[in-house]
Structures are given as structure tokens and as C-alpha cells.
């Protein structure tokens, strides 16, 4: 296991050389799986996450269907090889909670009332984890939904902020999450200015909390632009190869 | 009153398309006085109506649509048909047999069995009820032969083209007969499997490049190239 470093911030830079308000390098690809109705892949630092969407389709068993709206079902799952020590592939307590958190972050973006009596499945598979997977999962899952042709109010971008060594920082990685003071994941619909997920783990003063949320929203806006770029890239690339 | 994109520009969900006194068309919604996109697609401004031609969408049944579906279940008085939509469609036995029938006498699997493909028309559908099909019009019914291609349902108008230019081009050049289902399923019947394959390639190309202009010309060139390639191949094997 890693030794706990003496300090997480040296000379104003973090362990991986980032400034406090800097995101990890992000790579997003849309439509990577041909068997799913929609899919997306995200690499955020060392995080590697796949998201796939099926639906909307008829819901079985039928008694779970809602007469006035669609049912969204989410599964957040970590691969056994996603962390340093093998993780049991059975869904853990944490994964069940995160499935619910991801679902609730996505629901406000979707026009659920358009397709009553149906269900849509979202599968999030974490292949490699390095902190902030719930946020990267939401980012990828909202793109997979858009790729599946789901009508959406806006794309959902998510990013965390937190406090490490007395400094408010953006996009915490695993070690900062574990040894830091606090972690605030935020999911956000930038065009509408709506927050769909807000959690906090740790201790912050009111002022610190406010600046962390504002910093996370700034991060979400940057990620949102990358999301739009990735969604467009799928169609622009076909255009360029022709010309 | 302001618009924020050029006509036919690529937009993503959540993009603000127009502000002010506009009407929200397909694949858009209104929030306050802003019109936003709900799907990835190409934006269209038409007088006061703002709409998005979606590049990715699924089929939602509409009364009057012709669809191609596969029988997935045989019941007592009819069939359940998968029409590539979120809802399974129902086809009643009385509609197919065109007469009274008795479940204890008639075996419905003799008429249509699981896996059979049908061309049908949607005659009833709303939010509370699954779509109801009919095969009583001419040209509808069980599919005997041909090949099936599935494309994104929103691209069916592109396969038809302006005033049917695209579909008549494919029919003319490949000699195949095409039935377009509004649900994105296309039936191709030609004289030989090679002809059908050529029509299939053309349709796949349309699906991939539907958002780029000059499509009809490119499809024509592609079919010509393919024909030459094949023509060359045959003459070589003869020599």
C-alpha cells in the first residue's frame, strides 16, 4: 500500500503537479459499444469508466412500471480489478448507494413523462478507480443517455471539490479524498444552472463549503464543454473523413 | 428575439437555440422565453418555429405509420409484435383472418408464428395503450422473402430524399423493391442477393452520412463504383 505522504500540497502544487483549481486530464469518447443503445467512455486522470444505456423498453415485471412516467434503473459497479486490492464483484453497500445517487443525479435531466410504462437501464462499469468515480460516472452516463437518443433538458456534468491540507482544491484524486479534510461532489446542468447532486463528506466551515461548491461548479462547466465536444466529435469525424 | 445558431448547425441537448417569441418544435422545449434542444441533431429555424432534426432517436408509434415488426408471441386471439419501439404492438387474429374465428378450431401459428416478419399499419395508439396493428390494406402482411436493414428511425426521411429522389435512385440503380417502415426497419427485395446487398450498403451509407450535404450524388457515385468493381470481378473470373 501507499505510504501516507507528509503533505498533499507542496509549493502550491498537488502530488500530481496540478494547481489547486486544476482538473485532471480528461478524455471522453461517445458511442464506443455497438451492442448498447447508447454508450460513453471517460478517462479522468487514472479513472477509466464505461457507461451503457438500454432503452426505453417495456418493463418486466410489469407491476414495477409507472403509469405516468418512465422508470430509470441504474447500476454502478466496480470491476474486481479496478482497485489495488481485489474487490468482490458482488454489489457492495457502497455501490448500491452510488447506483441510487447516480440515478437521482440523472433523473432531473430526462423527460421521464414522455414515455410512460417503460424502463431505461443505465450501466456504469468502473474499470479503474482513482477517486471521484461517482462524478465521472454521472458525466459518462449522461452522455450515454444522449447517445441513446433520450430527450434531455441538458447534459449533466459532475465534478468534486474539497479541502486538502487547508486548501480548497478541485477534482480530488483517491489519495486526496482519503487523506484530505473534506470532499464535495457536485452534479450540475450548466445551461439551466441546476444542481442535481450535492454531497459532502468531511468537515468544512460555511465559507469553505460555499467556495468548494463554486469551484466544483466551475469544474462542471469545463467538463460540460468537453462533453459537448465529445458528443459532436462522433458526427464531425464522419464529416471530415468524407472531405 | 434572437437565435444563437446557424441553420443546420449541430446542437447538443441543453443548447439554447433561441430566445424570445418563438415556438418549440420537434426535439426542443421551452423554459421561460428560451428554446432549448433535447437531442443531438441539426437545428432548423422556420419562421417562428424552432426544431431539431435528431441524429439519434428511437421510434415512438404514431397512428397511420407503416412499420415492419417481428412476431414475438402467439396468444389466444392474436400476436404480439416487436416493432422496434419502447412498446410491443398487438395484432388481432380477427384482423388477419378477416373473418370470425374460434380459438379452439383455428391454430394461429399456421398463419403467423414466432419469428415471422410482418409489414403492418398502426391503427390505434396512445400513452395508456400499446399500439394496435392492422394488415388489412394492400401491400401489408407477412414478409415472404428479402432482407431487413435497421437504421435510426429519424433517418427514414433521408432515405426517401427530397420528393422521393433518394429512394427512386436506389430502386433504379439496384433494381430492388424497398419497403420503408417508419420504425427504422427497411425491407429490401431484389432479384439476387448481390442486388440486395448493394441497396443495403447504400442505406448504411445514408445512415452514417445523413447530416452531410450532397448525399444523393455521393450515393449515386458509390453504387456506380461498386457496380464497376463487381462487373470487373465477374469478367475476370470468366476469363
Describe the protein in words.
The complex is a heterodimer of chains A (243) and B (239). Helices cover 30% and strands 30% of the residues of chain A. Chain A has helices at 93-106, 133-147, 174-179, 206-242; strands spanning 9-10, 13-14, 26-30, 38-44, 47-58, 71-78, 118-128, 157-164, 167-170, 182-189, 194-198, 201-202. The chains are: A alpha+beta (243), B alpha+beta (239). At the A-B interface, strand 5 and helix 4 of A face loops of B.
Largest interface: A-B, 36 and 30 residues
As a percent range, the share of strand residues of chain B is: 25-35%
Task: Going across the biggest sheet of chain A, name each strand in turn.
Answer: 3-4-5-7-6
Please outline the major beta sheet of chain B: 5 strands, mixed, barrel
CATH superfamily of chain A: GHMP Kinase, N-terminal domain
Reported by name, the CATH topology of the largest domain in chain B is Ribosomal Protein S8, Chain: A, domain 1
What number is the mean pLDDT of chain B? 88
Helix content of chain A: 25-40%
* Rg from Cα of chain A: 18 Å
Unreliable residue stretches of chain A: none
Q: Tell me the overall shape of chain A.
A: globular
Strand fraction band of chain A? Answer: 25-35%
- CATH-level-2 architecture of chain A: 2-Layer Sandwich
Query: Over the alpha carbons, how many angstroms does the gyration radius of chain B reach?
Result: 22 Å
* N-to-C order of helices and strands of chain A: EEEEEEHEHEEHEEEH
Number of helices of chain B: 5
Oligomer: heterodimer
**How many structural units, i.e. domains of chain B?**
3
Amino acid at each position: 500500500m501507499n505510504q501516507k505522504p507528509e503533505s498533499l500540497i507542496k509549493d502550491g502544487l498537488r502530488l500530481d503537479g496540478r494547481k489547486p483549481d486544476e482538473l485532471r486530464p480528461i478524455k471522453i469518447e461517445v458511442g464506443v459499444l455497438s451492442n448498447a443503445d447508447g454508450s460513453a467512455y471517460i478517462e479522468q486522470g487514472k479513472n477509466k469508466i464505461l457507461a451503457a444505456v438500454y432503452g426505453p423498453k417495456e418493463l418486466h415485471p410489469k407491476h414495477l412500471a409507472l403509469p405516468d412516467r418512465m422508470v430509470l434503473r441504474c447500476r454502478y459497479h466496480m470491476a474486481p480489478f479496478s482497485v489495488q486490492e481485489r474487490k468482490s464483484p458482488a454489489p457492495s453497500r457502497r455501490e448500491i448507494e452510488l447506483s441510487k445517487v447516480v440515478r437521482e443525479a440523472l433523473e432531473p435531466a430526462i423527460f421521464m413523462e414522455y414515455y410512460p410504462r417503460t424502463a431505461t437501464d443505465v450501466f456504469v462499469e468502473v474499470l479503474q478507480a482513482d477517486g471521484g468515480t461517482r462524478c465521472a460516472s454521472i458525466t459518462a452516463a449522461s452522455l450515454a443517455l444522449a447517445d441513446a437518443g433520450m430527450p434531455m433538458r441538458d447534459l449533466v456534468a459532475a465534478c468534486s471539490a474539497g479541502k486538502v491540507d487547508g486548501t480548497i482544491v478541485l477534482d480530488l484524486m483517491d489519495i486526496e479524498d482519503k487523506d484530505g479534510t473534506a470532499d464535495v461532489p457536485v452534479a450540475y446542468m450548466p445551461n439551466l444552472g441546476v444542481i442535481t447532486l450535492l454531497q459532502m463528506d468531511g468537515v468544512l466551515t460555511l465559507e469553505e463549503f460555499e467556495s468548494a461548491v463554486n469551484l466544483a461548479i466551475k469544474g462542471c462547466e469545463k467538463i460540460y464543454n468537453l462533453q459537448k465536444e465529445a458528443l459532436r466529435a462522433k458526427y464531425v469525424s464522419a464529416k471530415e473523413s468524407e472531405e | 428575439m434572437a437565435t444563437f445558431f446557424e441553420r443546420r448547425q449541430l446542437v447538443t441537448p441543453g443548447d439554447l437555440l433561441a430566445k424570445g417569441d418563438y415556438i418549440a418544435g420537434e426535439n426542443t422545449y421551452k423554459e421561460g422565453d428560451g428554446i432549448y434542444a433535447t437531442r443531438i441533431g441539426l437545428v432548423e429555424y422556420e419562421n417562428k418555429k424552432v426544431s431539431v432534426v435528431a441524429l439519434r432517436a428511437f421510434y415512438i408509434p404514431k397512428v397511420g405509420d407503416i412499420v415492419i415488426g417481428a412476431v414475438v408471441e402467439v396468444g389466444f386471439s392474436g400476436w404480439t409484435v416487436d416493432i422496434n419501439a419502447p412498446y410491443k404492438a398487438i395484432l388481432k387474429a380477427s384482423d388477419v383472418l378477416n373473418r370470425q374465428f374460434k380459438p379452439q378450431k383455428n391454430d394461429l401459428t399456421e398463419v403467423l408464428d414466432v419469428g415471422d416478419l410482418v409489414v403492418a399499419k398502426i391503427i390505434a395508439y396512445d400513452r395508456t395503450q400499446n399500439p394496435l396493428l392492422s394488415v388489412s390494406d394492400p401491400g401489408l402482411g407477412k414478409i415472404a422473402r428479402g432482407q431487413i436493414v435497421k437504421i435510426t428511425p429519424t433517418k427514414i426521411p433521408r432515405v426517401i430524399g427530397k420528393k422521393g429522389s433518394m429512394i427512386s435512385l436506389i430502386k433504379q440503380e439496384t433494381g430492388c423493391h424497398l419497403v420503408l417502415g417508419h420504425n427504422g426497419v427497411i425491407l429490401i427485395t431484389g432479384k439476387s442477393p448481390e442486388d440486395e446487398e448493394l441497396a443495403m450498403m447504400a442505406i448504411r451509407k445514408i445512415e452514417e452520412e445523413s447530416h452531410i450535404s450532397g448525399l444523393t450524388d455521393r450515393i449515386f457515385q458509390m453504387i456506380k463504383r461498386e457496380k464497376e468493381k463487381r462487373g470487373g470481378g465477374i469478367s475476370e473470373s470468366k476469363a
